[in-house]
Amino acid sequence: MSSGLQRRRVTAAAAASSSPSSASAAAAGQTNGPNSDPDEPSYHSETFSSENGHKIAFDPRDLEEGDERAKQPRLTLMEEILLMGLKDKQGYLSFWNDNISYALRGCIVLELAFRGRISMQRDPSRRRLPLCDRPIEVIDDRLTGEVLLDEALKLMKTSEKMSVAAWIDLMSGETWNLMKIGYQLKQVRERLAKGLVDKGILRTEKRNFLLFDMATHPVSDTGAKDEIRRRTINVLTARTVVLPATALVPEEVPFRYLRAVTMVCAAYAANVLENALSSLGHDARDRAFGRVDELLGDYSQWPFAAKPGAPTGGVGVNLAQEISDELNANKDKELQVEVVAAALNVFTRLDSIL
């Protein structure tokens, strides 16, 4: 039987079993094509011998992407907020919700910061500006695999440096500058819903609304939405917040506690938080809204106003310490976390919160 090359993705363990001869042979064959861009990095395939003697070709980038995907949650912040706002059986958002579109653009900035793609500009003079008016920059332009994130990242990479508030406004289409109208991200909710369909969380149906038909996206994986509800209630009502690793948010995801706080604050700004708290009684729901008000106030400043040991009214007594531990473990990412605080600062200006 022929031992020709086969192309497939492989695991890091399989790559480690590559024989030195095959790896060196692949490295020796690494060349740039005649039409390649000299500014572009040169990529090549490597091979290893499988147990049956076949030689398997793989791209080293596959391994890098696989490692990064393992450190990212299954759903982006935008997808979690959209899922929280969708009616489970009807599959559409409230027609009276004016805030969610703007909040979703803010979540794009938040997600890019959490994934290490953008940060505040490393310039001490930036502190003279209000937090949400400080310029941000792209520090890693690798694709994330999420279409909306990659589209926004490309815009930020090719544009002049602008602030968090400016980017959220531009991506929402809230600008009088006709030269920048092209920065608006269109059909964000529909594209996010289709992404959730691809991930098996939603399904697509046609529903008739008087004179026209509209695609709706009912929830097909109720377990995912239930997990988001449990995480939200945990953060806002539990005396001690414990976030166990789950299929949606694995243990390897950095800033798990800060992500959870950011998610509930974004849901509050998007006017969908009440959907996650529907199982609570009236008084408990009021206390939860009061708690998210506190969280938004504490984490929309930089440095964060929440301090370990500070009184919290008996809710989330460990939360500030957990987030402080995350920051101490990622001191090299403080400029990225500053972007998170700036985006939450923008959320405090929305009409539903004022």
TrEMBL record:
Membrane topology designation: Peripheral membrane protein
Membrane as UniProt keyword: yes
UniProt biased composition (Low complexity): 12-28
Domain of life: Eukaryota
Location in or out of the cell: Golgi apparatus membrane
Principal subcellular localization: Golgi
InterPro entries membership: GPP34-like, GPP34-like_sf
Chain intervals with Basic residues compositional bias: 1-10
Keyword hit for Membrane: yes
Record field: compositional bias (Basic and acidic residues): 52-71
Keywords: Golgi apparatus, Lipid-binding, Membrane
Family the entry assigns: Belongs to the GOLPH3/VPS74 family.
PANTHER family in the record: GOLGI PHOSPHOPROTEIN 3 HOMOLOG SAURON, TRANS-GOLGI PROTEIN GMX33
Name of this protein: Golgi phosphoprotein 3-domain-containing protein
